[in-house]
Design a protein that fits this description.
Elements: E1 16-18, H1 19-26, H2 30-38, E2 45-47, E3 52-56, H3 57-74
Antiparallel strand pairs: 1-3, 2-3
Helix pairs in contact: 1-2
Length: 84
């Protein structure tokens, strides 16, 4: 049987992210991410007795794609011009 490649520990991305993780990825604050979740702009689930929020990585990617699509729809002539 041929050797199967093994991934080093931590090589796979986690399926779920904390709100702090999402804030870091989006370069924003946890309170802003919490507002996105509260306003249902970003899908998340609440887990555990203390109701900690988690965002699935696939949902974060969908959110980012949706934000790009909305930005492109607002100003199609400047789809790739950086603002900052």
């Amino acid at each position: 049987m041929p050797d199967q490649p093994t991934e080093p520990p931590g090589a796979r991305e986690p399926r779920f992210l904390t709100l702090a993780d999402v804030a870091e990825i989006l370069a924003t604050s946890v309170s802003q991410v919490r507002a996105l979740v509260r306003n249902r702009e970003l899908r998340a689930i609440q887990i555990g007795g203390r109701g900690q929020w988690r965002v699935e990585t696939v949902e974060l990617e969908k959110f980012i794609a949706r934000m790009y699509a909305e930005a492109d729809a607002r100003d199609p002539e400047h789809q790739h011009d950086p603002v900052d």
